[in-house]
Amino acid sequence: MDRTEESQGRWVVHGERTLYDDPWVRLSKADITTPSGRRFEHHAVTLPSAAVIAILDRAEEHVLMSYRHRFVPDVWGWELPGGLLDPAETPEQTAFREALEETGHRVGSVEHVATFEPMIGTVRSPHHVFVGRGAELVADPTEFDEGVYEWVPLSKVRALVAEGRVQSSGTLVALLHILAS
Description:
Elements: H1 3-8, E1 12-21, E2 26-33, E3 39-46, E4 50-55, E5 62-70, E6 75-79, E7 82-84, H2 91-103, E8 105-106, E9 109-116, E10 123-124, E11 127-133, E12 136-137, E13 148-153, H3 154-162, H4 169-180
Parallel strand pairs: 3-10, 4-11
Antiparallel strand pairs: 1-2, 2-3, 4-7, 5-6, 5-13, 8-12, 9-11
Helix pairs in contact: 3-4
């Protein structure tokens, strides 16, 4: 797509006003004009950026996951370690930190898989996905509300996804990447 095509399909933002703001979420309304010329106010939600890491065992036959409850949608599901970026951190640093805090494993190396927006039409919240290798258990976890981690065979991951037991978008992106590789 060249620049002319991009400008013809661009939504124009005339301004944005904040309705609610705290460190976890900002809700605003943007005054926009669509490519067809329609002008109206559109809600926008801004959430902090997050990183997720799929930690593989040395044989790359298992992935470290927790089974936990999420109170907002009131669901139980399998998830990977991850969390919000601290202001001074890169996404890669967050992946290393979250792996250690949630699982007690120090990861030897990480591979960036993707950065995506989980709800691109309404929410701003870049999610950075990594695969970690060379993990070594070096400490007890320091975050106690993240569930109990266990090594899940990759041979069972496809069934967990198909059964709806993996619902976190970052976890799905990472696992589907591993299964496709």
